[in-house]
Amino acid sequence: MKTKFLNSLRSLQFCLKTLDLAGCNLMEGEIPSDLWWLSSLTNLNLCENNIRSIPTGIIQLSQLNDLYMNRCPMLEEIPELPSSLIRIRIEAHGCPRLKTLSSSHPHPTKDLLWFSLLNSFELFVQDLRCNKVWKELWNFVILPSRGRTGIPKWVKDKSMGCEVSIELPNKWYKDDTFLGFALFFSFVPLDVDDEKKMDPLCLCELSISQGDRFILVNSILLEYGIYGGDKGLDALGLHFYPQNLIPNKYRSKRWKYFKACHEREHRIKSCGIHLIYAQAQNNHKKRSRNRYNPAEEESQSHHKRSRHHVF
């Protein structure tokens, strides 16, 4: 059975776009390394499996748009993702062992997912400045929410409720190293019953001000829905917004504050804003990961199976 599955993967290397492995009872080391050669894959579903980590080979999937890992009770880490991804949705809700962007970490210096998202965001901003892209970034992440606020401790500007504001850096409109904003929000996900009554899409209004009066500059659509079996568990959402998308008429020293305000305040528990700078990624780039080596991964997987043969 396994041989047939591997052979079918190889034959679909350049045409398979969606692969659903949800609920396959996959253990650590049982994700086949041939999967990472599926160069056309855009949607990967690994929900409801018993894997401890996603293999590093995932960095090969340069076309990936959707990665689902919900309700994987053993999952502890999400690895580095391809830096070419500028439009991706990641869901890893209902994973109690997952420490990625956890509120207990003082700073995400060793968080591979965070640095992958930063690298993708910087590439997008660079293309935006060169007019190589015209669509807005769609980079949306849903993770377990922990702690009193659900927002990571290293996010200094946060508040309970559905809105949060932040003071803009000095001469932000001229600073090429200032890329934009990471928008965090802890929320109550929709369940199956809610889906029938409510639209899972919700607006987040982004405003800018000179003082007390905020003026709307843009609105982004976010989806607050995670369906099936996660009722009662809060989630942490993350979205990036480039400062280049703030209209030219607001790009001056007069405008000093930026605010994010979410609709459906009854579902939002807290939110936060973190400023993103290009130089924050330098240390990560200097210690960039080695190229994916399938032979090495197979060896590591065999070693892990030897050590963790009982779950």
Describe the protein:
With 311 residues, the protein is of the alpha/beta class. It has five helices and 13 strands. The strands form two sheets. It has a nine-stranded mixed sheet. Strand 9 and strand 10 form a beta hairpin. The C terminus is likely disordered.
Task: Record the SSE blueprint.
Elements: H1 2-11, E1 18-20, E2 43-45, E3 66-68, E4 87-91, H2 112-129, E5 138-144, E6 157-160, E7 163-167, E8 178-187, H3 192-197, E9 201-209, E10 214-223, E11 235-242, E12 257-262, E13 268-277, H4 282-286, H5 294-307
Parallel strand pairs: 1-2, 2-3, 3-4, 4-5
Antiparallel strand pairs: 5-11, 6-13, 7-12, 8-11, 8-13, 9-10, 9-12
Put simply, the count of helices is 5
Average predicted local confidence, pLDDT: 79
The tally of strands reads 13
Question: How many whole angstroms does the radius of gyration measure?
Answer: 20 Å
Quaternary class: single chain
Helix share, percent: 10-25%
Q: Please state roughly what percent of the residues sit in beta strands, choosing from under 5%, 5-15%, 15-25%, 25-35%, 35-45% or over 45%.
A: 25-35%
The largest sheet, given as strand count, sense and whether it forms a barrel, is:
9 strands, mixed
- List the secondary-structure elements in sequence, H or E: HEEEEHEEEEHEEEEEHH
Side by side, the strands of the main sheet go 1-2-3-4-5-11-8-13-6
The 3D shape can be described as: globular
